[in-house]
Design brief:
By secondary structure, the protein is mostly beta strands. The chain has 3 helices and 13 strands; from the N terminus they run ββαβαβββββαβββββ. It has one domain: Deoxyribonuclease I, Chain A (4-Layer Sandwich), CATH 3.60.10.10.
């Protein structure tokens, strides 16, 4: 929940980066029209969200195979990930976690860095940290959107737009579905999260069709700063169990939220200590656009 990366580094606004890795061929894009959603047939879609704690479990031991096993056990079609390291540092063995997990799970991946920093050494890769989306379905489009952030990488930070709000459009058996993965500010002051909610809603407002927003919100669904979300979306697991800390959760801060045209067949929190958070998985139903 709380970032641990506070070493001072160079300042500057990080450009939005498109870093999609498609491990299998994608299908052609579905037509984007304004026709109302067809009500038959509905298409099943299992979606999950998981803050992977950079591959370290509740025991603070880095074990990406354990992370992959926890993800595999969800049997999800699309998974939003948070706290993903890409060549970040020794704590995660400088691994490209987004690509490695995609390969282990045989899924497509889009990684959206929040931070994109100089290499640790002369011959190293750029150090990145952010969110990602894994998908078993073809990825038609992907974006790394900016939202308001208060950097953990600079001294005396001020709120400013920064990337790390991932959006992918996936083709789910003919249904064109927007899936977003987010990681909101962890600090006690809710003002940054409130600004982030407004920014995310602006992004969602530009899209049509089924929309699914998942992530680590660092606030419970009843928090005042999240209230504007519920005018556009609904909580897929309002009675779900706590998600943080994983060993004995006392807060439900990891959420799957959906637009009104997405059906919810069920949702649950999954007990595992492969991270300091627990994942949430939801069985959804989405509709193809009318012809």
């Amino acid at each position: 929940m709380t970032p641990r990366f506070r070493r001072p580094v160079r300042t500057g606004r990080v450009a939005a980066v498109l870093a999609a890795v498609l491990l299998t061929a994608t299908a052609p894009a579905a037509a984007d029209d304004d026709a109302p959603a067809s009500r038959a047939p509905a298409v099943p879609l299992r979606v999950a969200t998981y803050n992977i704690h950079a591959g370290a479990g509740q025991d603070q031991v880095f074990d990406l195979d354990r992370t992959a096993a926890a993800l595999r056990d969800l049997h999800a079609d699309v998974i939003g990930l948070q706290e993903v390291d890409v060549h970040w540092g020794a704590r995660s063995a400088f691994v490209d976690e987004a690509r490695a997990l995609a390969e282990k799970l045989r899924m497509r991946v889009f990684f959206a860095p929040i931070y994109d920093l100089e290499p640790a050494g002369e011959d190293g890769e750029r150090r990145q940290f952010g969110v990602a989306v894994l998908s078993r379905h073809p990825v038609l489009h992907a974006d790394n959107h900016e939202i308001t952030r208060l950097s953990t990488q600079t001294p005396d930070p001020v709120p400013a737009p920064a990337p790390g709000f991932a959006e992918v459009v996936v083709n789910v058996r003919g249904a064109r579905v927007h899936v977003y993965s987010t990681h909101l500010d962890y600090r006690a002051d809710p003002s940054i999260r409130a600004a982030q909610v407004a920014d995310m809603l602006d992004v969602l407002a530009a899209d049509r069709g089924p929309r699914i927003l998942v992530g680590d919100f660092n606030a419970e669904a009843t928090a005042p700063e999240l209230a504007p979300l519920w005018r556009t979306l609904r909580d897929a697991a309002p009675g779900g169990g706590g998600t943080f800390p994983a060993a004995d959760p006392v807060k439900r801060i990891d959420l799957v939220t959906v637009s009104p045209d997405v059906g919810v067949a069920g949702a649950r929190t999954v007990a595992t200590e492969a991270s300091d958070h627990r994942p949430v998985v939801a069985d959804l139903r989405v509709h193809r656009r009318g012809r």
